[in-house]
Write a structure and sequence with these properties.
The termini are far apart. It contains 14 helices and no strands. Helix 12 packs across helix 14. With 208 residues, the protein is mainly α.
Amino acid sequence: RVWGTPLVGIASFLEKAQEHRVVTQTVWEALEKETEKLITLAWETPLLAVASFLEKAQTHPVVVKTIWEALEEDPAKLVARVWETPLAQVAWFLEKAQQHRVAAEAVWEALEKEPEKLITLAWESSLPSLGSFLEKAQTHPIVLKTIWEALEKEPEKLITLAWETSLSGVTSFLQAAQEHSVVTKPIWEALEKELAILAWEASLPDLV
């Protein structure tokens, strides 16, 4: 039954079965003994869900070690998975991978070496997610430069993203981008223009 269930489903089941030690112990033992099957499940699972599962499995070092070693032994496969993953989730995975240098470095190197793919991921992100990722990428100047330059080159696209974002989300992004006036300026100008239009429309009844 365990091996016919996705890793996310196993994690959910283990969480709900915490009060039934015999059941959970049986599942954990199966995961520890059948390492090849566990690795197969891990590769079939989205990166965010893998990171979440690893966090919940901290008290089971054999399981954790098996999955991290599999990710590190096949960096090309890990990187391929990165390009299928939203940037916000990549950031979360990297946060969890800080103690696993081989995996983290493989991902950062891929983000640096494939600027076009990185830019695509950036434009597919929401503004708050993008701001959050940029803050987490502070020690990776090539990644930062690639994204900031892409944002600076397409102000119209940036403004469209801003209109799809809540005011609090725009605010958090503007805070992250405060040192990049070329990025923040078109957003502020668009907001000011919209507010001026709203104010004009609101004053129309008084003019009639």
